DNA sequence: GATCATTCAATATG
DNA sequence: CCATATTGAATGAT
């Protein structure tokens, strides 16, 4: 292969059999998977029912009959109470799952059209993403459907897919909207617009309200938009803090709370005990002028009151300020709580406010409490347990990287020299060099005179907050020849690590990498630093003795997120990096067959050529302390150096290289 | 079923 | 950093 830069390097590397790329998966079992908190029953039968049995665990106050508010379906399926008889009355005639191939992925749109993308997924549905000219919708493309089974009850894969599609559309709309509003003004919210698309196409899950956990969502999962909670059925109102549903008790119906979002909006005091939450009722504020009056025992307030008396579980999502992206909020699913007591208080304006004391149910994984611990490690009020070195980079990164081991006695990985970035002694030759930009104040979206935007096919690849917006095979960042400042948004991968990372000993995969900070999907995490390995065309072999190799020439399963790319992620020319002797945090990232991190080639022009870098971005929102992993891919010669994969995912290929 | 009111959003800006 | 204005979507209530 020639080393010259092909100016058409963005084009797919060759014709691809699309039926293979978008191969329809085998019919997924639609058995809902439920966590098993103490005292809970979960249904996991080969014949799944749309009902979820969530009996509250006693004891109950005298005179209160426990009842079992089964999921109330919007499709007017019968509700029932378990104490009527042993037979729960479940309707076993579930709708037959629609074969996925009924919704075959449409043929991709005219190739190379940067303005047209649609969210196409291997599992057989697509959501059209609006283009620049017609931001409301685009009616041309065929659309499949998200089948009823997935809409009714989620599983991990379904929930992840819904969130992925949402994110994809939202980021794309953000990119278009930033460019548009910079010239025409009036920023319209991409998060809402994306939700609307998802809703109208029916791409959502757990779409009927239910009490208790929601399948496919784990305690500790994080969300960056209220709409995400809505789309996965965790909390349906787009703004309101209390979600409730009406449940039939013998002949009458009464409201019961299903979930709350605690965002600190009603100046509740945030006590030290993370298992206790004091929550204010809703209402009492005139939204227009901020005028206040007494809250009434209606809607959500009434529902919480009923849940208190019934002893029902309430899901709790905690809203926390995003320290990295200041004004926005992160929502942590903190699991199930029970309401312990309620009372009314006078607020500052002298109006009555309902108060509810909620207590977290025991036996659930750490979630909000973990955030609090991390906060203490950070501000020094508590020591990070099992800490070996506070900063293994010795200051080479802008953020310290802790080294910890709470598994065994090993004191650290084999020594290596820490380098924060990939250094080029000699850039790649390029026949075609553009001149750099003159964006002294940083590249701005919608600036048609900016050459960097042109190189990126008309739109800046990053948002104002530094989140990757495109799904392109190659990103052109500002380089040496550009006049943009180091903090230009088109230099995201050059600005260094923004998250507080730590290297830790895993249970069975040696050392690994994780983050104290929550990571928003699309965020830049780090680049692959190390020594460039000389490759003479075709004769490079993955060295068996070097497990710190990054080879951009490996084959990678196309991620669903690269919906518009019918080729696997590929660098424009061969690049092999060894981090054995020198490297950065990237060398500790382990392999997973269902990764939460992906890599992306990035090109920067220098005075006498181009430099290719490998940058890692988050595929989805990553909660704190969840291991960061990417797919190592398959080398051209996949016969040597095979290792057993322990990633444990449903899609595990069994081994990696 | 259409319309309205309610709601611990999310941004941009001063 | 906070306050304010602006634009808004889902859902239950009417």
TrEMBL record:
Keyword NADP assigned = no
What would you give as a GO molecular function for this chain, any one?
methyltransferase activity
Gene3D superfamilies hit by this protein: SET domain, SRA-YDG
Presence of keyword Transferase: yes
A GO CC term attached to the entry: nucleus
Residue ranges of every copy of the Pre-SET domain listed in the record = 435-496
Keywords linked to the UniProt accession: Chromatin regulator, Chromosome, Methyltransferase, Nucleus, S-adenosyl-L-methionine, Transferase
Q: Which SUPFAM superfamilies match?
A: PUA domain-like, SET domain
Q: What is its main location?
A: nucleus
Where is the protein situated, by its record's location annotation?
Chromosome; Nucleus
Q: Where is the Post-SET domain?
A: 641-657
Q: Which residues form the SET domain?
A: 499-633
List, as start-end ranges, the regions of compositional bias called Polar residues.
74-91, 113-123
* Annotated ranges, domain YDG: 212-360
One Gene Ontology BP term is: methylation
> What are the Basic and acidic residues biased-composition ranges?
144-153
Q: What is the name listed in the Swiss-Prot or TrEMBL entry for this protein?
A: Histone-lysine N-methyltransferase, H3 lysine-9 specific suvh1
Instruction: Specify the taxonomic lineage.
Output: Eukaryota, Viridiplantae, Streptophyta, Embryophyta, Tracheophyta
The record's gene field reads SUVH1
């Amino acid at each position: 292969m020639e080393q010259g830069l092909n100016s058409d390097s963005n084009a797919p590397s060759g014709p691809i059999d699309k039926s293979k790329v978008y191969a329809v998966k085998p019919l997924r079992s639609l058995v809902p998977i439920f966590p098993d908190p103490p005292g809970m029953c979960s249904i996991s039968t080969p014949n799944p029912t749309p009902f979820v049995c969530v009996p509250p665990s006693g004891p109950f106050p005298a005179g209160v009959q426990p009842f079992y508010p089964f999921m109330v379906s919007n499709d007017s399926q019968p509700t029932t109470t378990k104490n009527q008889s042993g037979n729960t009355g479940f309707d076993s005639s579930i709708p037959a799952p629609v074969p996925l191939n009924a919704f075959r992925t449409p043929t991709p749109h005219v190739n190379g059209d940067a303005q047209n993308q649609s969210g196409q997924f291997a599992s057989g549905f697509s959501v059209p993403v609006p283009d620049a000219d017609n931001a409301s919708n685009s009616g041309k493309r065929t659309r499949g459907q998200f089948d009823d089974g997935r809409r009714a009850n989620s599983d991990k894969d379904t929930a992840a897919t819904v969130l992925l599609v949402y994110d994809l559309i939202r980021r794309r709309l953000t990119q278009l909207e930033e460019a548009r509003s910079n010239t025409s003004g009036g920023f319209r919210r991409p998060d809402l617009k994306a939700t609307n698309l998802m809703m109208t196409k029916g791409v959502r899950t757990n779409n009927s309200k239910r009490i208790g956990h929601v399948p496919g969502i784990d305690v500790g999962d994080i969300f960056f938009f209220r709409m995400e909670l809505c789309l996965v059925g965790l909390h349906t109102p787009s703004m309101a803090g209390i979600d409730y549903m009406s449940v039939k008790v013998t002949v009458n119906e009464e409201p019961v709370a299903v979930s709350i979002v605690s965002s600190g909006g009603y100046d509740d005091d945030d006590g030290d005990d993370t298992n206790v939450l004091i929550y204010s009722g809703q209402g009492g504020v005139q939204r227009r002028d901020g005028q206040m009056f007494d809250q009434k025992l209606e809607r959500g307030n009434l529902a919480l009151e009923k849940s208190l008396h019934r002893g029902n579980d309430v899901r709790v999502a905690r809203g926390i300020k995003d320290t990295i992206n200041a004004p926005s909020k992160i929502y942590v699913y903190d699991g199930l709580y029970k309401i312990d007591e309620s009372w009314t208080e006078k607020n500052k304006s002298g109006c009555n406010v309902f108060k509810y004391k909620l207590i977290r149910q025991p036996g659930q994984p750490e979630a909000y409490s973990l955030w609090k611990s991390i906060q203490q490690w950070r501000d020094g009020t508590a020591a990070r347990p099992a800490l070996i070195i506070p900063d293994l980079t010795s200051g080479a990164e802008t953020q310290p990287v802790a080294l910890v081991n709470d598994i065994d006695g090993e004191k650290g990985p084999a020594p290596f020299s820490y380098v924060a970035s990939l250094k080029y002694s000699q850039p790649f030759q390029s026949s075609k060099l553009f001149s750099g930009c003159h964006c002294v104040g940083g590249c701005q979206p919608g600036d048609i005179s900016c050459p960097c935007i042109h190189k990126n096919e008309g739109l800046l690849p990053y948002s104002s907050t530094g989140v990757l917006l495109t799904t392109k095979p190659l990103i052109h960042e500002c380089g040496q020849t550009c006049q943009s400042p180091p903090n230009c948004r088109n230099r995201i991968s050059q600005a260094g690590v923004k998250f507080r990372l730590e290297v830790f000993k895993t249970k069975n995969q040696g050392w690994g990498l994780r983050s104290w900070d929550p990571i928003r999907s699309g965020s830049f995490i780090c680049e692959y630093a190390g020594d460039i390995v000389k490759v003479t065309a075709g004769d490079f072999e993955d060295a068996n003795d070097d497990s710190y190799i990054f080879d951009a020439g490996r084959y990678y399963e196309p991620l669903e997120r690269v919906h518009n790319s019918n080729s696997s992620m590929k660098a424009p020319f061969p690049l092999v990096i060894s981090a054995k002797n020198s490297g950065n945090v990237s060398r500790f990232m382990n392999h997973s067959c269902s990764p939460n991190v992906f890599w992306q080639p990035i090109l920067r022009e220098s005075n006498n050529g181009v430099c290719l870098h490998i940058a890692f971005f988050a595929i989805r929102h990553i909660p704190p302390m969840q291991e960061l992993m990417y797919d190592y891919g398959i080398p051209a010669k996949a016969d040597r150096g095979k290792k057993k994969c322990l990633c444990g995912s449903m899609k595990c290929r069994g081994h990696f290289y």
